[in-house]
Every structure is written in structure tokens, then in C-alpha cells.
Amino acid sequence: MADPALHQETKPINQIAIDYTPEACTHCPESNSITLTYDRRGGSRWRSTTRFLYGTFSSLIQCPKGNTSGLNFNIYLSSLEGDKSQDEIDFEFIGKDKTIVQTNYYTTGTGNREEIHELGFDCSDGFHEYVIKWCPYFIEWLIDGKVVRKVDKREGEGFPEKPMFLYASIWDASYIEDARWTGPYVGCDAPYVCLYKDIRVPIGTAKINGIIKTLKEEVSWKKTEIIPAKGRWGWEMFDAAMNLITTVIGFGMSVTFILFVCTRIICGRLRGAESRQMFEIESRIDLEQPEHRISGLEPVLVAAIPTLPFTREAFNSAEDAQCSICLGEYQEKEVLRIMPKCGHNFHLSCIDVWLRKQSTCPVCRFPIQDSFEAKHTRQTAISMAQSIGSRDTPSEYSRQWPLPSYQRQEGNHSNERHLETVHGNPEITPGEPQTSHS
């Protein structure tokens, strides 16, 4: 087995892309297994969905059984399959002889670095582990934990440095070199099925690994040998650096998400109270304005409009349960003003601000001043009736407009005594309390 310290952290491959003949490729993420089939439809090829820059790539592979002459089945890394300037690192099985495997690597499209390795077994007899360890300064190919080839990066020689996908395919290669490489295709045992399971790729993607590469070069990692007894480079520090960077990035993303959620909640609550605050601010400003600038009702008349605490039992209609000025819903026990004649209701603070600037109902535009003038006319009629001694004559003008408590307490007591002499059963309208009689 290879030294565990040489292996970066890996994870199962959860998602793949199928380049061609998708019906000949099956992927099961739960069991982390992939099946490639070659038959009359041809072969198929799958790859990872992201590129990686360095790391450890591995899979358990069982090659197809039967006479596989002419076929090539493989697992390899490539910056982009079909690109003439691609980088590539290969494990390739030769169909005419399933007891050998070929390793190779390309830099900017240049290969010719093939090596043949004896397996010591038939690659179709059960699963065996194949590992490609690609590091900034060397490449290792391992079979069942044993290093079968190692290439060190040397000055002036090509070395794969482009981010690469993980690929695997099965295809007819008998046309290459007139079948001298893989043998002629026979096909007597089709369909041919190549099985992959426990496929693993590096945790970091090309972007994260690129950051690690930059850090590594800045500290001259290649020149740092820290475990003389093992004769290995300092890859333990390499693994620790990648773990630290991954942790920091994950923590930063988590904090950002939490701040985003908290901000949304706080902003939502502030918007809910914004309309009410605007009216309260305007109310305070209006109280400070000079009296001659008021164009609505006088404050004493505004205060004389009847009020009523809100209860849901008394206000069944959905329209009556919402203030038409601030569009806020009424809460239990909130004090409302009820407009005379039309009966529309509003928040006390909202309608008071309105009536200091306007003299009409905000909904129906009925002139509220007219209601006060009608009341004044009726009160004048009552006084005239009292002056001629018509004490026993019932009158509909005995209704009194409700004024605020301080007006009732400081009002003219002589007028109250006159009103007490008026008898009868006057008509009562909503919001107008009946004057008591002795």
C-alpha cells in the first residue's frame, strides 16, 4: 500500500456527464457505481462535471469478460477530450491482452510516453483498485496500493499542469495502427460490460487547488523535505493547508448566509412599522406649526369627533377592520375615530393628522364641517325655543354633539341648565350621546 500521507482527501463522485451513447452508460450515486457497455450501439464515455487541479483519483474496476480483442477500456484524466493541446494522464487496458495495462501522459497534446505493466492477473477477474496521484511535482500510478510508475517533474520537460476532468470509456480502437495496438475487433462475446465502483475524486476543485498551488510555490515547497526517515516531500503540510482553506471558505459562506437571513427579518419588521411612524412624525410636526397655517379643522372640532375602542366583534367587515389611511389592520383596544354621517373609521393618530390639513372624510370626501354647522343650527333652535318658554315641546334638536371631556367640563353651565329644561324623546344617531333630562 502507498503511504496514506501521500493521498489528499477524496470524496465519492456524486454526479457525472455522459459524452455520448447515454443509453450505454448507467450511474448509481447511492452505490457509487458506473457501468459502461459496448455492443451494436457502440461504446460510451462518462466524465466528472468539474475539473480538478492536482489530487488523488481512484476506482475499483472490473474489465469486460470474454474475447475483448480490438477494444480499449480505461480511466484517465484530460483537460478536454479531443483538444489537440490537451494534458492527459492515463490507465488504458488493451483488449487483446487483459493481463497488461498501459500508462501514459500528455502535455499540450504531446504524448509518446507509454509504458506497459504486467498485472499478474486477468483484469476481468474481479475488481482491482487503480489510482492516479497527480501532484505539482510528480505523478504516481498505483494498482492495488502498489506504485507501478512514478514520474517526477523536471526542468525543461513537459508536465501536466492544466485542470483536468476524470474520464472513463469503452470503445473500438482496432482501427489504430491497423489493429496492432488492441488487436482486431471480434465481438463474439458482446455485449461487453466494464464496471466501475467506489470512484473517488479530490475534495477541492480546480479553483481551490489553484490557490493551494500558488501558496505552495510561494513557500518553495519543492525544496522543503521534512520527513527524512520516509524520504517523502512535505505533503502532510500540503493536506493540512487544503483542509484549512476549505474550512475557512465554508465558515465564511455560513456566516454570510446567516447575516443575509437576519437582515431580511429585521428589514421586514422595520417596514411593518414604517407607515405608522411616518404619521406620528407628521403629527408632531403639525403640532408645532403656527395656528394661521392650519387649513383643515380646528383642533377643538377634531377632538369633538366621536371615538371608539376597536373590537373584532363590533367590526365584522374586513373593510372596517383596516385603516384606509395607513392601510394597517386594527388591533384590539386601539382607539378609532368614527366620522359623522358617513360612519367611516380610522386610527386616531392617522385621521387627526389628516383633519388638520383637510376638512373632508378621506374615503367619501363628505365635508365634516357641514356636520358641525348642522349641529350648531339645531343648538340655536333649541335656545330660541327655550327663550319663549316652550318647555314642554318635544324637539328633535335636543341631541348634543359629543365634545372632548375638557370641553364638557369647562363649558357654559348656563347652557346646560337651559338644555335640561327641554323634554321629549329625541332621535338618537350613532356616535351622538343623548342629553340627560331631569
What does this structure look like?
- Helices cover 26% and strands 24% of the residues.
- Strand 17 (335-338) and strand 18 form a beta hairpin.
- The relative contact order is 0.10.
- It is an alpha+beta fold and 438 residues long.
- Helix 1 (206-218) packs across helix 2 (235-287).
- It has four domains: 4-202, Jelly Rolls, CATH 2.60.120; 207-288; 292-366, Zinc/RING finger domain, C3HC4 (zinc finger) (Herpes Virus-1); 376-420, no CATH class.
- The longest helix is centred in the middle third of the chain and has 53 residues, at 235-287.
- The protein has seven helices and 18 strands.
- This is GH16 domain-containing protein.
- Residues 385-398 have a biased composition (Polar residues).
Name the features.
7-stranded antiparallel β-sheet, 18 strands, Jelly Rolls, disordered C terminus, Herpes Virus-1, disordered N terminus, Beta-glucanase-like, alpha+beta, 7 helices, 8-stranded antiparallel β-sheet, GH16 domain-containing protein, rod-shaped, 438 residues, 4 domains
How would the blueprint of this fold be written?
Layout: E1 10-12, E2 16-20, E3 25-28, E4 33-38, E5 44-48, E6 55-62, E7 71-78, E8 88-94, E9 100-106, E10 115-118, E11 128-135, E12 138-143, E13 146-152, E14 165-172, E15 192-202, H1 206-218, H2 235-287, H3 299-304, E16 307-309, E17 335-338, E18 345-347, H4 348-355, H5 368-387, H6 405-410, H7 413-420
Antiparallel strand pairs: 1-15, 2-5, 3-4, 4-15, 5-14, 6-11, 6-15, 7-8, 7-14, 8-9, 9-10, 11-12, 12-13, 16-17, 17-18
Helix pairs in contact: 1-2, 2-4
